[in-house]
Amino acid sequence: MEGKDLKTLIKNYMEYRKEYYEKNKELFAKLAEEGQKPKVFFITCSDSRVVPSIITKGDPGDLFVLRVIGNFVPPHESALEYSGVASAIEYAVSVLEVEHIIVCGHSQCGACKALYQDIPEDPEMMAIKKWLKVAEPVKEYVLKEIGNKTVDKEKLAELTEKTSIKFQIKNLMTYPGVKRRVENGELSIHGWYFNIRTGEIEYYDQERDTFIPLEQYKG
Ligand SMILES: [Zn+2]
């Protein structure tokens, strides 16, 4: 579905100034003066259909956000190769000292789908080709899980998207700051799965190794 054109977005911006900004003027002034102190670091896909502050009804100052294709988190050993992602992780965890990291994957994820496609050796696609390698172990794991069973495209997509969330959590734990603060009980990592069609979120229950509606989350 086509998104709004730039003209409309600029018109909306003017409405935002009149409405949202006017209503929250003090909040903005406080944030400007005192700086940010978000409790949550939200890592999600660049996909335009996943909008962190809308699905959490968050205000400015609530979420430190990293949006990157497929919400893939490269393991720390390759952190300097992917320093944009690694910097956001280090800043959120060791400087802002967030209390939670949410890795939010989603349905119909183009990046997860692309893991099963051949990306051509095209100078315009080189970064994508390399970036998808971060999630190569996800694909390998899923294909092994499936084995000889036949699964339809949708099932394969969902299995890949959900497995990827688990792998990205594991990769996050390879960052020294993340590991230290999780082990000290200062930081928790959560895996969320956002369903674009239904608007529902499921969270990953590590003990039961399964995804459960977020309404049932007990913390
Ligand atoms: Zn995606």
Write the layout of secondary structure elements.
Blueprint (H helix, E strand, L loop, with lengths): L5 H18 L1 H10 L5 E5 L7 H4 L7 E5 L15 H13 L4 E7 L3 H5 L11 H7 L3 H11 L6 H20 L3 H8 L4 E7 L6 E5 L4 E4 L6
Parallel strand pairs: 1-2, 1-3, 3-4
Antiparallel strand pairs: 4-5, 5-6
Helix pairs in contact: 7-8
The structure holds zinc ion.
Write a brief structural summary.
With 219 residues, the chain is α/β, with parallel strands linked by helices. The protein contains 9 helices and 6 strands.
Proportion of residues in β-strands: 15-25%
CATH architecture of the largest domain: 3-Layer(aba) Sandwich
Number of domains: 2
How many alpha or pi helices?
9
EC number: 4.2.1.1
Keywords: Lyase, Metal-binding, Zinc
Catalytic activity: hydrogencarbonate + H(+) = CO2 + H2O
GO molecular function, one term: carbonate dehydratase activity
Structure, explained:
It is a single chain. This protein is α/β, with parallel strands linked by helices and 219 residues long. Helix content is 44%, strand content 15%. A six-stranded mixed beta sheet has the order 2-1-3-4-5-6, with helices on one face. Helix 7 (136-146) crosses helix 8 (153-172). It has helices spanning 6-23, 25-34, 52-55, 83-95, 110-114, 126-132, 136-146, 153-172, 176-183; strands spanning 40-44, 63-67, 100-106, 188-194, 201-205, 210-213. The protein starts with 5 loop residues before the first helix and ends in a 6-residue tail after the last strand. Helix 3 links the parallel strand 1 (40-44) and strand 2. The longest helix is centred in the C-terminal third of the chain and has 20 residues, at 153-172. The chain contains nine helices and six strands. The chain has two domains: 1-33, no CATH class; 36-213, Carbonic anhydrase (Beta-carbonic Anhydrase, Chain A, 3-Layer(aba) Sandwich). Zinc ion (ZN) binds next to helix 5.
